Amino acid sequence: MRKTFPASGQARDEVLNQLRSFKQDDADWSGGRVPLFVFKGSGAAAEISQDAYNIFFTENALGRTRAFPSIQRMEQDIVEMALDLFQAPDEASGFITTGGTESIIQAVQTCRDYERAKRDDPTHRGNIVMAYSGHPAFDKAAGLMDLEVRRVPCGLDYRVDVSALECAIDANTIMLVGSAPCFPYGVFDPIEDLSAVAERHNIWLHVDACVGGYLAPFVRQSGRPIPAFDFSVPGVSSMSADLHKFGFAPKPISTVFYRNPDKAAHHGFEFHDWPNGRFATTTIVGTRAGGAIAGAWALFQHLGRDGYTVIASELMTGIEAYRAEIEGIENLHVLGAPELSIVAVGSNKLDIFRIAEIMQGQGWVPGLLQSPKALHRMMSMLHVPATPQYLADLKEATATVDAESGKGAIISAEY
Ligand SMILES: Cc1ncc(COP(=O)(O)O)c(C=O)c1O
Description:
By secondary structure, the chain is an alpha/beta fold. Helices cover 39% and strands 15% of the residues. It contains twelve helices and 13 strands. The protein has helices at residues 12-22, 43-55, 69-85, 100-119, 137-145, 162-168, 191-201, 216-221, 261-264, 290-327, 352-360, 387-404, and strands spanning 93-97, 127-131, 148-152, 173-179, 204-208, 236-242, 254-258, 269-271, 279-281, 333-334, 342-346, 368-370, 373-378. The strands form three sheets. The protein has a seven-stranded mixed β-sheet, with helices on both faces. The two termini are 31 Å apart.
């Protein structure tokens, strides 16, 4: 039966209490039991982010040029500070978007239109070449824009096989993609090698740093090795980096950047031929939350490089301890050598999905990979405190599955 629209209103507290009660059936994200979707840097970061959001709760970023110069200014500041972080040349530019997916769709659209103009072929159907481990946002973009995606295998180290990628290039290839890191395995594709391929063939290289963009520079600053992945690599044409992931900003907010003005010129939408006159946006969506922009701006100011580095260092210390513990559990191993916060755990002997199924029964939302089968966690400071209990339950579930001999799992991998 369809729910009817309320005939009259209920008291505020009654309504808010209902909302709180809705959460009862949700997974315990604040206890670190949700392995993706949610992020935490520190208590202080979460607090200023939320307070900043509330100061700009009502403002709409769609009106930033006509009504809210405050938003315009914050957007410009964020983009400039991020370009500095990503070692971009002076002529580089960037835009705020509502998430990694939108940043990627925008970069693909900009690349497609740049290529169509360059080839003087307004209906050219291009292809994008990337690893099997690349994010489906590229397939979403390609579906929307009638482009082809060619996925090539990863090597034994789970990084894109650069020779396979080069072999998949043809005259219609408009974009190469490298991830920094990829979501499934948490490893960086070799961006410098991809850059050499991109320069050799004169093809646009996009670096998907949605996960790593606002974490990797600070992990590097903490003294840990991070491969070159940003505009310091000469063949990188564009980059996506999510503020609502390891920037710890309120959702939804991300950034997309272009090295060259002639490429960036194809970003954006403008329309005049309707009753209200000029309609120009730099995003796919129209209305956007001012609060998310204020949150990101406040975090950059409040944390600075040093503050982000303290968080990154604490997080990586927790992750290093987690990885060491995993390597100590019989029959389990970490997949590859992830540089940052995503860790996938496989088994050469046991059905890892069955292990996940048992842990699901203990309140852990399973993060799973289907190839190879693995457990998956994208860890922030929500997950580090939960890790001793996670490991205890994992050890117990692993022993149970070892003793069970061959009972098959029912669950399957889902993002
Ligand atoms: C590597 C990578 N790229 C892109 C995205 C898409 O980001 P969003 O969910 O903000 O659209 C994700 C999301 O996890 C990701 O891991």
